[in-house]
């Protein structure tokens, strides 16, 4: 079992070193929880990310809380959520106090432009990694493509897109239960072959 201390330091480190916005932080969480620490499989992490995307706030915050909840329950979620946000709170307080002076330096503006451009690459990487684990057939690929089109081309509200995707999943993507063979059917076959 993962200790609360390990959850704290893991999510504190992610919050401290993760830059680029919510999706880059989800990518770091994925590498940490799945690849490095082996806490979850790709599919389990994708499920946590899906639930995390439905919670209020950034997807990275929800994913951190849901992942830690899966590992250690409510206390794990609370510890990870607090640790994940602590570095950002401290950094925002420091930046707020010094921003007027820092924004005049050309290297600060250049650094921000560079980070902004890198976020596009990070988002593409997260989309590809998540897509590999979630898009298993043509139908799920069509849902993903439809969601992308609705967001990018038509500017549909992301909450509406998620709700429509959830409904589509219920109607078209739920697992099909196959009937179990009955004991008498197997017995009849054996008797018939004698």
Structure overview:
- The longest helix has 44 residues, at 59-102.
- This protein has a domain at 1-102.
- Helix content is 80%, strand content 0%.
- The chain is mostly helical and 194 residues long.
- The protein has helices spanning 4-17, 22-36, 42-53, 59-102, 106-134, 138-152, 158-173, 183-192.
- Helix 3 (42-53) packs across helix 4 and helix 6 (138-152) runs antiparallel to helix 7 (158-173).
- Mean pLDDT is 87; it is low at 190-194.
- The protein has 8 helices and no strands.
- The protein is globular and about 75 Å long.
Strand content: under 5%
- Give start-end ranges of low-pLDDT stretches: 190-194
Number of helices: 8
* Secondary structure: number of strands: 0
- Radius of gyration using CA atoms only: 22 Å
**Which range best describes the helical content: under 10%, 10-25%, 25-40%, 40-55%, 55-70% or over 70%?**
over 70%
Mean model confidence by pLDDT: 87
Order of helices and strands: HHHHHHHH
The oligomeric state of the chains shown is single chain
Structural class: mainly alpha
> How would you characterize the largest beta sheet?
none
**End-to-end gap:** 53 Å
Shape: globular
């Amino acid at each position: 079992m993962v200790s609360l201390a390990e959850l704290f330091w893991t999510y504190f480190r992610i919050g401290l070193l993760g830059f680029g916005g919510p999706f880059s932080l989800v990518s770091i969480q994925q590498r940490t929880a799945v690849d490095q620490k082996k806490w979850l499989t790709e599919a389990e992490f994708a499920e946590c990310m899906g639930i995390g995307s439905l919670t209020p706030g950034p997807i990275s915050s929800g994913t951190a809380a849901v992942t830690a909840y899966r590992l250690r329950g409510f206390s794990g979620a609370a510890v990870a959520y607090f640790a994940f946000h602590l570095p950002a709170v401290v950094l925002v307080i420091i930046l707020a106090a010094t921003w007027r002076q820092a924004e005049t330096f050309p290297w600060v503006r250049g650094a921000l432009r560079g980070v902004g451009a890198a976020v596009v690459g990070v988002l593409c990487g997260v989309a590809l990694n998540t897509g590999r684990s979630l898009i298993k057939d043509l139908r799920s690929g069509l849902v993903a493509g439809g969601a992308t089109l609705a967001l990018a081309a038509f500017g549909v509200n992301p909450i509406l897109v998620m709700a429509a995707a959830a409904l589509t999943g219920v109607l078209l993507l739920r697992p099909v239960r196959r009937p179990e063979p009955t004991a008498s059917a197997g017995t009849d076959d054996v008797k018939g072959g004698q």
